Amino acid sequence: MKTLYLLNIYFQLPPGTQNPDDNTPLDFSDPFNIITFIVLPIVAVVLYFIWRKRNKKDK
How big is the CA angle at 47 (ends 41 and 52), to the nearest 5 degrees? Predict the structure, then answer.
């Protein structure tokens, strides 16, 4: 019974916070979302591999 009470307290959201179910899905018709969530991560990964290759070559 005590475990159930602790789980109930754990799963409650504090008042005034946003519920994760309130989020809307990404709208990929907006150019900002395309750049932020697709282009920038790809560019970051490519730059990381270039940087890593350059560091290995310098050693």
Answer: 125
